[in-house]
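Figure caption, in words: inputs first, then the predicted bound structure.
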Amino acid sequence: MAVSSNMAARDIETMIHPYTHLAKHREKGPLIIDHGRGVFLYDNQGKRYFEGLGGLWCTALGYGNEELVEAAASQMRKLSFSHIFGGKSHDLAIELAEKLKELVPCEASKILFCGSGSEANDMQMKLTWYGNNARGRRAKKKFISRLKGYHGVTIAAGSLTGLPAVHTDFDLPLSSVLHVSCPHYYRYGLAGETEEQFTDRMVKEVEDLIEREGADTIAAFIAEPVMGSGGVIIPPRGYFEKLGKLFAKHDVRFISDEVICGFGRTGNWFGAQSTGFAPTSVSMAKALTSAYFPVGAITIEEDLYQAMLDESRKIGTFGHGYTYTAHPVGCAVALKTIEIYERQKIVEHVRKMAPVFAKRLKALVDHPLGGEARSLGLMGAIEMVADKKTKAPFDVKKMVGATCVEFLESLGVISRAMGDSLSFCPPLVISEDEINEMFDLVEKALDMTEAWVRKENLRAA
Ligand SMILES: Cc1ncc(COP(=O)(O)O)c(C=O)c1O
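Bound structure (pyridoxal-5'-phosphate present):
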């Protein structure tokens, strides 16, 4: 038992684990990871695991990439830190900003760096407010985001996130954040409703909300092109195109949270390009450095930049920045990561692997637990249901998803469940053989889960 080991006991007595049942953790103890190679992790007992979730949707180039290690180490030797406050700069930040401007799927005037996805979305909110104040639009402050959307955990980003656990007893969300429905056709489509009608209903909900609140109060809408942590939810056809028209009409910033979808994950450089999403601005993090160093960024469009210039003239500075904004080691790692993506033609590789990944995932629908299988590029999920015909879910308290994740872990696959949706987001460098080997184990875990569901008689509950 893990808790009997000295390391496990020390963990329990010293650390708070994010997104963990803290009381159960005291009994179960941690899974202690020791090292990683390629698409595999190894625990401190030497057991091997497929990294089915790419760390936390971030380790795009897998583990042990010597080029990235060298990029970080040589930059640390040359210049371990340099900030960009007060007009200081360094060549790596300049080069990275230029590269990102070239790659992003929107008209970016400037890049503003930070250290994480939460910070990126936090800045989206601050900068939207700041820009609207500068332009005298003092009421235009509200953000719209979606239930089940994930945008991080700081006070602003956590407010944008549409998951109850991120709000409950944290006094969130902020009153300036309004949540609309999750556009998941399989789960929330009405009987007899076509996908197109569903899209129209989702868009109408947003339109009605803008009308009710007043367009002069709605500043921005933020969405992941494909919801990741919410259970890999792919928008219905036409959704972002129709929303885009609505937001153009009402001058609402249309923000694509590319923290998971960016840098090849969906088979394009950015998820927006795979989903008909024409954003005003994007948030980036995670695969920007393949998680070898924490770096995030947002794009600033020209009219927002002009408003920021005006504020500087008025206030005397731009009153925002982190010590680690444009950290030189992070910039060096990000530049090397992008260079590798380009050299290894990672987007093409994802497009080649996506059908293999999708085929194995789709086959799980034939399993007795299989409800919906969904994927785009190399991110996907299988939603387990109690009744395939009616799509009835299991009682949430039975923790079917979490139990299946435990079976998977015992077989050597790391995944996560959102409710009863098992998510997969392997490193982008995964090979065809590795995809097949991983899904062979997933099938076994589903069999183990089905046997447990029957033994516990969970369908009758
Ligand atoms: C889409 C999206 N946005 C933002 C975040 C928050 O990023 P971080 O955990 O780096 O703060 C995440 C994290 O999973 C994410 O998936």
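DSSP finds 17 helices and 15 strands in the chain.
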